[in-house]
Write a structure and sequence with these properties.
2 copies of one chain form a homodimer. With 240 residues, chain A is an all-alpha fold. The first copy, chain A, starts with a helix and ends in a 5-residue tail after the last helix. Chains A and B meet through helix 7, helix 8, helix 9, helix 10 and helix 11 of A and helix 7, helix 8, helix 9, helix 10 and helix 11 of B. Chain B binds a DNA duplex (30 and 30 nucleotides) through helix 3 and helix 4. Chains A, B: Keywords: DNA-binding, Transcription, Transcription regulation. Chains A, B: One of its GO terms (biological process) is negative regulation of DNA-templated transcription. Chains A, B: It comes from Streptomyces malaysiensis subsp. samsunensis. Chains A, B: This is TetR family transcriptional regulator.
Chain lengths: 240, 240
DNA sequence: TCCATGCTGGAATGGCGTTCCAGTCATGTC
DNA sequence: GACATGACTGGAACGCCATTCCAGCATGGA
């Protein structure tokens, strides 16, 4: 086995599109958006640029592949059937939507570069695999919610937009603001900055700044989801 | 006059931070995200890099300034008092929120680069002037809606997240997908792509693809806003 | 045995953001 | 009217980036 393996491979482990994308994700996670360079990639993979370009069209495609990989992983853990639930108590569509949303939220939280990447990727090529994947996952639950067919598209889109918008903007909050600040310091600094705004132009923002300090991102994200879900339920009563 | 003007200025019109930002916005509008280079900028302003760097810290700051300028302009047109309404019929907070949202939607529609820029800018530095500006504009109406103070932050954030998320993702749809396609062709291509997805994995998406074809972005965006607003009203009844 | 083909990585290219610096001009001072 | 000052300019250069080119390698089939 060892012989065959060694024979069929130039290096300890052959280069492949998978290995490249995996390394790219690791690099993005470790060093952020700007940390993914072909130099760093060739170094980490102990190879040259030509080898990478043989497996991958260009950097944009590599970023797209990284995005798709991470999103797919995030949606894969979703409790489609919830086989471990107490039996006879399947999750409601509402709970499932919350779970899917939270999965995406956490994926963006773990991979902060996803926020920007999704924004460019989704609007640039909605035919890619990532938009339909998210859309499908949410849409099935929207249908289960009892929303009439004519509104499926609108409702599912709205949900997706909220989820990606909110998760994206929260992402960097969690990871501190570029400097070495931790989350509390960062929140505190932002709240302080808000409190020093012009009292005339920013009455509301100043009045609300204190709520910024101790707030829990996840909790607030879910509260937003609930707002949208409640709106959906009110607009399309399940018994209609 | 001409003499004094000519005397006090090195060139026909002196370089200034304003002029630079203005040129940057024009360049971004005309040639897209990647079109803004210092080379193109120096050419358009008939100067050298050093002159630009005297007025501006670096490219990130320039992009931030461009973003702030455009957002400020978008929020400035909002009908704060609606002085031209039939008299005695002021806009409801709900209508005003719709108007503010639509203003942002159209700004992103006119300047597609705003979508990505807002995503990076907002999450990178929430203390900048753009987040508070939007937050304030929406928050005042949320308060007028009768939402209890304890929920101001959550509700306003949710609204902002939906607006920016939805507007951002719709932006590029409107401007065709990179190629020379117009809107209808683009929508059609996307719908066709969705209809060719795996029938098992994408039941919902395939079933809904046809709704993609003729849909109106603005209308759908507003429908989403209404969903959120309805959710807000249901969660916080005005008479409570 | 030898060649075709899939795959590799070092060297080179052109464009980018950014820096450096020698210079220019309006202005204040005497 | 001469001169020093300091805001402001723009050409040349630097280092890093994505991308391309190509001479070579290993391997499976003839």
């Amino acid at each position: 086995m060892a012989t065959r393996t060694r024979r069929s491979q130039r290096r300890t482990e052959a280069l492949s599109r998978e290995r490249i994308v995996e390394a790219a994700v690791e690099l993005l996670d470790a060093t952020g958006e700007g940390g993914l360079t072909f130099r760093a990639l060739t170094e980490r993979l102990a190879t040259g640029p030509g080898a990478i370009y043989w497996h991958v069209e260009n950097k944009d495609e590599l970023l797209g592949a990284a995005t798709e990989t991470v999103v797919a992983a995030a949606l894969a853990v979703e409790p489609t059937g919830a086989p471990d639930s107490p039996a006879g108590a399947p999750d409601s569509p509402r709970d499932e939507i919350r779970a899917v949303a939270l999965g995406l939220f956490e994926a963006i939280d773990e991979h902060p570069w996803l926020a920007t990447q999704l924004a460019t990727h989704l609007s640039r090529s909605p035919w890619g695999s990532v938009a339909p994947r998210i859309f499908e996952s949410l849409g099935r639950r929207v249908r289960a919610l009892g929303v009439p067919e004519g509104s499926w598209f609108v409702v599912t889109s709205a949900l997706m937009h909220y989820i990606l918008g909110a998760a994206g903007q929260n992402a960097a909050n969690a990871r501190a603001g570029g400097g070495g600040l931790d989350r509390d310091e960062f929140l505190d600094a932002t709240a302080a900055a808000w409190e020093e705004l012009d009292p005339d132009d920013y009455v509301f923002t100043r009045a609300v700044a204190y709520q910024m300090r101790g707030h829990d991102d996840r909790e607030q994200f879910l509260a937003g989801i609930d707002l949208v879900l409640t709106g959906i339920a009110a607009t399309h009563p399940p018994d209609a």
